[in-house]
């Protein structure tokens, strides 16, 4: 009786896993990172750059996106993320950042998602990044903008800094969860959209209660 061909089984398992490593996993990682850029342009990129630089969570970049993990890129992203973080807490400036975000966030998402397609050539990785990243970032930018407009309309912008901190936490949390459990990204995306919707509704209810107690605010 012939023995089991362990080498053949291993090769077969490797071949079966290749599509997952080349396509499925990068798509999941790209979706998760892109959703985070829908809240912040630079913070998710900074976290990706640091993870790639120090080889955290097994993050591997496409060779032509490797510059993202350089010290100069991390330094520039750190400054940009800090400026964005602080600026989003300032009235008027926050609205300007959100308006600019309709352009910068899809670009950042395309860059982050493209870097995840480590096994593709540069052109294919860039195209995949645009396809996966840009629409996802636009979706969450729109959802975030809707919550922010609700806050502005119902509280006169008073609650906007609180909403901003919540968005910071969501962006950071989404990146970390994406790195830790990319297979759960589709569920996380749905949960995140539901959370944004409920946040907007909570702001509206809080405003309604406040107006009910103080009619002079109407």
Explained architecture:
77% of the residues lie in helices and 0% in strands. With 218 residues, it is mainly α. α1 packs antiparallel against α6, α2 (43-53) runs antiparallel to α3 (71-87) and α5 (122-155) runs antiparallel to α6 (160-180). The longest helix is centred in the middle third of the chain and has 34 residues, at 122-155.
Output the structural class.
Answer: mainly alpha
Mean pLDDT: 87
Largest sheet: none
Q: Which stretches are low in confidence, meaning pLDDT under 50 for 5 or more residues running?
A: 3-7, 9-13
In percent, how helical is the residue content?
A: over 70%
Q: Whole-number radius of gyration?
A: 21 Å
* Spatial shape: globular
Helix tally? 7
**How many β strands by DSSP?**
0
How are the secondary structure elements laid out?
Layout: H1 6-37, H2 43-53, H3 71-87, H4 93-116, H5 122-155, H6 160-180, H7 185-213
Helix pairs in contact: 1-2, 1-4, 1-5, 1-6, 1-7, 2-3, 2-6, 4-5, 5-6, 5-7
């Amino acid at each position: 009786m012939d023995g089991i061909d362990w080498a053949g089984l291993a090769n077969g398992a490797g071949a079966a896993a290749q599509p997952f490593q080349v396509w499925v996993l990068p798509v999941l990682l790209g979706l998760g990172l892109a959703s985070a850029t829908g809240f912040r342009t630079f913070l998710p990129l900074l976290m990706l750059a640091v993870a790639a630089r120090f080889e955290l969570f097994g993050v591997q970049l496409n060779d032509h996106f490797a510059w993202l993990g350089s010290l100069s890129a991390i330094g520039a992203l750190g400054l940009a993320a800090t400026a964005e973080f602080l600026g989003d807490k300032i009235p008027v400036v926050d609205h300007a950042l959100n308006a600019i975000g309709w352009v910068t966030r899809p670009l950042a998402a395309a860059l982050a998602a493209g870097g995840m397609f480590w096994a593709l050539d540069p052109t294919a990785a860039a195209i995949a990044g645009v396809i996966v990243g840009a629409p996802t970032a636009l979706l969450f930018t729109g959802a975030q903008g809707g919550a922010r407009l609700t806050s502005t309309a119902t509280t006169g912008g008073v609650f906007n800094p609180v909403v901003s901190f919540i968005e910071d936490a969501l962006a950071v949390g989404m990146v970390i969860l994406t790195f830790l459990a990319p297979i759960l990204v589709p569920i996380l995306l749905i949960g995140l959209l539901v959370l944004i919707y409920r946040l907007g509704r909570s702001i509206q209810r809080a405003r309604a209660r406040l107006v009910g107690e103080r009619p002079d605010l109407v």
